[in-house]
Amino acid sequence: MEPLCREPQNHSSRPVRFISHLLLLLTFLLWQSTSTMAQTRKAGEFAFATAKLDISEGDPSALLTVTRTKGWDGKMLVDVILVANTNNALVTALPATNTITFNDFQTSAQLAVPIKENGLTNANRTITFVLDNPRPADGEISAFLPTLSSNKVTALQVIDNDDAFSYFFSQSVYYASETDPFVRVYIRLVAAPDKDAQEVTVDYKTETSGGVLAGNDLANAGADYEATSGTVTFGPDVMEIPVDIPISRDAVLEFNEEFMISLRNAKGSLTVAETNVTNYKLGKVSFARIVIINNGDADSPQAVGGVDPKFNADNILTTNPPLNQTPGANNTVLSVVPGLNDTIVLGGLFTSVNSTPRSGVARMKSDGELDASFAPAGGANDFVSAVASYLQGTNQGKVIAVGGFTSMSGLQRNSIARLLEDGKIDRSFDPGTGANGSIHALSIDPEEKVLIAGDFTTYDGVPRNRVARLLSNGNLDLSFNPGSGANDVVFAILSSTSTNGANGVIIAGDFTSVDGNPATRIARLNNDGSFDIDFDVGLGADSTV
Questions:
Q1: C-alpha distances out from residue 181 to 161, 219, 253, 298, Å
Q2: Which domains are delineated in the chain?
Q3: pLDDT number for residue 238
Q4: 3-state SS, one letter per residue, for 267-321
Q5: Among 108, 2, 110, which residue's Cα sits nearest to residue 45?
Q6: Helix, strand, or coil here: 17?
Q7: Distances in Å between the alpha carbon of 184 and those of 22, 225, 263?
Q8: CB 151 within 8 A of CB 65
Q9: Which of 310, 233, 226, 222 is nearest to 266 (CA)?
Q10: CA distances from 229 to 57, 249, 262, 284 (A)
Q11: CA–CA separation, 545 vs 404, rounded Å?
Q12: Most confident of 32-41, 288-297, 332-341
């Protein structure tokens, strides 16, 4: 009997099959990750702020407001379509399709619709606009899609202001900056009186009443503007009279504010064709809305809290670098604080800002341009979770950075470093061996001592569980002793003053006790680091603060 022999097996295909299976697995994981991200992140829903907007034919433009609700993640686009109709001659300068861009976290945007006055007496006319084609911008995840609300149609009614023998305002909406001394409105009269006319007058009065445009607040007479009333008299051949309303400026951070001005008590008559006498009356635009722009820029009506399109703009020649297509940081920013001379100090996981290398810490000018005079050579070798800037005192202009790094600008610095005003390491601030874990938060107290909090258990070799105070030179302040400290991570710390004037420290995070005292995720320490038993938060927070 011949021995049984097996055919020799070819194993050369195994690596190919393995790589094929691996690629399928990676594809599935990538799809699953993308799908999960698309479900977690929400691109939002686009809608018009109002279903109808009235504007005078005398207004230079109308502002259509598009809102983004139910999510605001990612850079998204939506088209505003001008529906074809016979009234479109009023907006001949506007394309049929207008694309609006919403940046990440932006919740509203406006489209300016130019209005063309025809000088004819006719009926009011309506122009219809529709939202269409919501989509992610280039570079966004394709599965991450915005949607349209049911409020995707708006009607712009253009009120004819050429009403014969009538008094009316030249515009239905006037804009003024809060920095302007006054806003000027114009009262017009169709068919000017002749030399024999008598008492051709109309009264006007400001008032805080009526509805406001989406996103605006009511202005208060006395605080935001000066209540104004009076009478204008039209002489022969006079067809327009200006009225100035004083604007008051305050130091309060506010949204745009509105008030109204109205016409009343129309008087006078005009003899037509020698026999017919026509009385003057109030026209269709006998009320006007006045909007006070609180950002001081009347050319771009943006409410406080709206995105500033001029901050660190992309694809324009005047930026540094010019035509920058990637403005801002290339990774997560974890901390933002004001710096000296209206600068902005950033900390985070980024390695470049405005296409310029900056590892973990950077400074920008007030317009968003990178401040090249602050250049930490090499920066941090790991994330920066928080930054603080000295705005006054002996260390004015310096910046402290904390995080999970072990070196700053090539010099050993465990989780904390101080930088000079030009970004170089400040060697007069010496933390020794620093913290043995990440520092998540810091605060500079009135004496320029530095409060730190995080996930460390020692500082410069001395036990300090998750909270400590440093002297101005970086050494541990031994007079501040929190005992056994917090029993879990501290994510926030703040220097505070109690009602009796004593200095103290507030901490918050994921802990449930401090120095053995029950304290659910928020607590207050005395100036010496001991637990403040007079600060009682009851059950505290039910999750991480």
A1: 28, 16, 19, 13
A2: 45-159 (2.60.40.2030), 166-293 (2.60.40.2030), 333-526 (2.130.10.10)
A3: 83
A4: CCEEEECCCEEEECEECCCCEEEEEEECCCCCCCCCCCCCCCCCCCCCCCCCCCC
A5: 108
A6: helix
A7: 71, 13, 15
A8: no
A9: 233
A10: 25, 20, 9, 20
A11: 20
A12: 332-341
Spatial distance between the Cα atoms of 213 and 253, rounded to a whole number of angstroms: 19
Strands (E), 319-359: 333-338, 344-348, 352-353, 356-357
67 neighbors 46 (Cβ within 8 angstroms): yes
Which residue type occupies 328? Answer: G
Q: Sign of the CA dihedral 259, 210, 51, 90?
A: negative
Tokens, residue 51: 């279903």
CB within 8 A of 5, min separation 6: which ones?
A: none
> Which residues lie closer than 8 Å to 434 by C-beta, 6 or more apart?
413, 414, 415, 416, 459, 460
What is the sign, positive or negative, of the torsion defined by CA atoms of 66, 71, 73, 78?
negative
Per-residue pLDDT for 480 more than 80?
A: yes
Instruction: Note the Cα 69 to chain centre separation in Å.
Output: 15
Asked if 190 contacts 175 with a C-beta cutoff of 8 angstroms, the reply is no
**Of residues 372, 385, 398, the one with CA closest to residue 435:** 385
Give the predicted TM-score (pTM) of the model. 0.52
| Residues 6 or more apart whose Cβ sits within 8 Å of residue 180 | 247, 298
Give the tokens for residue 325. 């297509």
pLDDT class of 42 with cuts at 50, 70, 90: confident
